Amino acid sequence: METAISLLRAAQLKPTNQIKSNNMKRTVKYIVIHCTATQPDTTVESIQRYWREVKGWGDTPGYHYLIKPNGEIIKLLDESKNSYGVYANNNECISISYIGGIDKAGKAKDTRTRKQEVAMFDKIIELTERYPTSKIRGHRDFPGVKRACPSFDVKTWLANYTPAF
Ligand SMILES: [Zn+2]
Description:
Blueprint: H1 4-13, H2 18-21, E1 30-35, H3 44-54, E2 65-67, E3 73-75, E4 93-98, H4 114-130, E5 135-138, H5 154-160
Parallel strand pairs: 1-4, 1-5, 2-4
Antiparallel strand pairs: 2-3
């Protein structure tokens, strides 16, 4: 059976058009995994409203992709643009977030459903094929990040993940 890691390696070895066609104004070095740090049933609309009204981010979202508990992936931003995912590193990142990441008491917790996990993994594989030199990281793996985002260890998850076929 193929493991998650062997799938990722295979994806990174595939030839890519991305580098040659280079219509990107930025270099994607990291595929960054986040959580919204909200309850899992929080709506996409209320998350966007928070960014606009509380954070003052206008139409720029926190992430490129948002994954709902049912596994649906919402594209919020073109990959050629910067999101507000990772302070000071946004120029080099594509950010993926699942909705959730805290328990009822507000403490960091991996609340991903199996469908969110599968959708997240498949998206990572797809992005890895298009950005073969990119590294996969959790938000908290960046230096100086004090938050728990995405509420799980990305490396450990990838090492133990069983792909869905
Ligand atoms: Zn984050």
